[in-house]
Design goal:
mainly alpha; elongated
Length: 58
């Protein structure tokens, strides 16, 4: 049952990723994973930069 839950979670994550960025991309699951990881990294780096600016300003 546990593996079935992971499969459903992966399908749900893929559907959300396609809803966020509906452009046609080849490569399937692997390219979607790399795309989401790079998006996550960019968001985290901006949050850290804003936090660093706020800390140095105070």
């Amino acid at each position: 049952m546990d593996i079935l839950a992971w499969i459903v979670l992966g399908l749900l994550a893929g559907a959300i990723a396609k809803a966020i960025d509906p452009q046609a991309r080849g490569g399937g699951l692997v390219s979607t994973q790399f795309y989401l990881e790079s998006l996550d990294t960019r968001i985290k780096s901006r949050v850290i930069a804003v936090a660093a600016i706020n800390i140095s300003a105070s």
